[in-house]
Design a protein that fits this description.
Helix content: 25-40%
Structural class: alpha+beta
Distance between the termini: 37 Å
CATH superfamily: Hypothetical Protein Pfu-838710-001
CATH architecture: Beta Barrel
Shape: globular
Number of domains: 1
CATH topology: Hypothetical Protein Pfu-838710-001
Radius of gyration: 18 Å
Order of helices and strands: HEEHEEHEEEHHEEEEHHH
Largest sheet: 8 strands, antiparallel, barrel
Number of strands: 11
Strand order of the largest sheet: 2-7-6-5-4-8-9-11
Number of helices: 8
CATH class: Mainly Beta
């Protein structure tokens, strides 16, 4: 464990805990999201600032949760390209496993023209295609996206750690993702993200958020980041990626870790 990882864990442990049951009224399934990208050192500074103002979600004795998510897309990468090209509304299909509890959900996320994100999900037994179909996955995704499991394939899987904070007023949720790793099913490529930290503020509308002042104090600015799209661009050089190339240069400067698109020729030795 590095020194900065120890700092993160130290400040996280000082926060008052909140359980999943206590968070049941803060689902924010129809919400406005604001993302920020930074590094682990800035995260440690932020966790020091939130002392006495935020709860840390705790499941059992754990405050750092592990996630595994598989994204599904059409054969022509409709969902990836809609995001790349700035189309709205746009959607993503994913199966997410909360690895500490082994709960798994098939989810459809829709972002509308006004920047609001709506997420719908159903419980499924596992990330296997057959299990998702048996649990009613086909009519679920078809009703929301027009696609069926015959039209989509698993493209990118990620694994990461997450800290979840809730302000004392219980009006917002802050998710903090780090140690993100990608695997691309189409190319077989893997990618890591170094000290990258993705912070996402989730709230209903534009209600006052105490975290915004703290983020400004540690000089962390809003910065869009899609784990699916960046993970796809980092592991599949065949995809259109003009928009994400510039974004990855910026993220490389923020984190000190080189984000890059693989050469196309490397995929066809």
């Amino acid at each position: 464990m590095t020194e900065v990882d120890r700092q993160i864990r130290h400040w996280l442990e000082q926060l008052a805990p909140i359980t999943l049951d206590e968070m049941s009224g803060i689902k924010l399934m129809n919400r406005t999201d604001t993302k920020f990208v930074t590094n682990k050192q800035k995260l440690a500074e932020l966790l020091e600032l939130v002392q006495g103002k935020y709860f840390a979600q705790q499941i059992g004795d754990k405050r750092i949760a592990s996630y595994r998510t598989t994204y599904w897309d059409t054969f022509g990468h409709r969902f990836y390209l809609d995001h790349h090209n700035g189309h709205a509304p746009r959607q993503k299909i994913r199966i997410r496993t909360y690895m500490d509890s082994d709960d798994t959900f098939l989810e459809v996320k829709t972002k509308n023209n006004h920047g609001r994100t709506k997420k719908k999900r159903i419980s499924v037994p596992s990330q296997e295609r057959a299990d998702a179909i048996a649990a009613g996955g086909t009519p679920f995704i078809q009703g929301l996206t027009g696609e069926t499991f015959d039209d989509i394939i698993p493209t990118v899987q990620n694994q990461f750690h997450r800290i979840t904070l809730v302000n004392y007023g219980k009006t917002e949720r802050l998710t903090i993702d780090f140690d993100v790793q990608f695997h691309n099913y189409e190319t077989g490529r893997d990618a890591e993200t170094g000290d990258l930290v993705i912070i996402e503020l989730k709230r209903d509308g534009n209600v006052y958020s105490p975290i915004l002042d703290m983020l400004r104090r540690v000089r962390v600015k809003p910065h869009g980041f899609s784990k699916y799209c960046i993970g796809s661009a980092m592991t599949n050089g065949e995809l259109k990626n003009n928009t994400f190339k510039f974004k990855m240069i910026t993220i490389s400067k923020l984190t000190g870790h080189k984000f890059r698109v693989p050469e196309r020729a490397a995929l066809h030795p």
